[in-house]
Write a structure and sequence with these properties.
Blueprint: H1 2-6, E1 11-13, H2 21-24, E2 29-32, E3 35-41, E4 44-47, E5 51-55, E6 58-63, H3 88-100, E7 107-110, H4 137-145, E8 152-155, E9 162-166, E10 169-173, H5 184-192
Parallel strand pairs: 1-4, 6-7, 7-8, 8-10
Antiparallel strand pairs: 2-3, 3-4, 5-6, 9-10
Length: 198
């Protein structure tokens, strides 16, 4: 983090499913580019769940989190945190945020993916480990997928680099690759042979 803070760019991230949420949630919360963040360092920000950020004229809806398929073998507050899944209030906040933005954004950034995606059933989730008030991410994302007007959806939970189309909209799963957002159409063409008409 010292190196990232010394550089001349902002580092932005959404949470996954192996974060130390006890530590992450202790960072100061503030509003940045229209959405709530945890400020980790002067130029390092955790983009919180259910927010929309306006960055360089583009809108980004963010929703981190995913379940750990091996949670039963992990130790709570050491190698596993229930907060990897969203709470009812976080989901309600996401719906309210999207409503305020007329269900339209340029980009969707999630860690997990919607249920009907080919990867959406790769891992099973034992919800009994989490208790009441927590929700499965793919089911929530499925509930917004068809209503939300977006151009690109990015996710990263599945350790692969690939593109899938839903309703003629690209969903880009990234693991090893880093994509310049201005060249995302080139990546889509490379992976699928499909050229978007933007």
């Amino acid at each position: 983090m010292n190196w990232l803070e010394s550089e001349g760019w902002n580092t932005l991230f959404i949470d996954g499913n192996h974060e130390n949420f006890d530590v992450l949630n202790q960072y100061p919360e503030e509003t940045w580019h229209g959405g709530k963040v945890h400020r980790i360092r002067s130029n390092i920000f955790h983009l919180m769940r259910g927010e929309v950020f306006d960055i360089e004229g583009k809108s980004f809806f963010t929703f981190g989190g995913a379940s750990s398929h091996d949670a039963q073998y992990r130790t709570e507050h050491q190698t596993w945190w229930k907060d990897e899944l969203p709470t009812t209030s976080e989901i309600e906040h996401a719906y309210q945020t999207l409503e305020k933005h007329d269900w339209k954004v340029d980009y969707v950034l999630t860690h997990d993916i919607y249920r009907s995606h080919p990867l959406g059933n790769k891992y099973t989730c034992d919800m009994s480990l989490y208790g009441d008030g927590y929700h499965n991410v793919p089911d929530f994302l499925e509930s917004i997928k068809n209503k939300l007007d977006y151009s690109y959806w990015f996710n990263g939970h599945y350790h692969t680099d690939e593109v899938h189309f839903t309703n003629q909209k690209p969903c880009i799963t990234l693991f090893d690759r880093i994509i310049n957002i201005e060249k995302v159409d080139d990546f889509i063409n490379e992976k699928t042979g499909y050229k978007l008409d933007n």
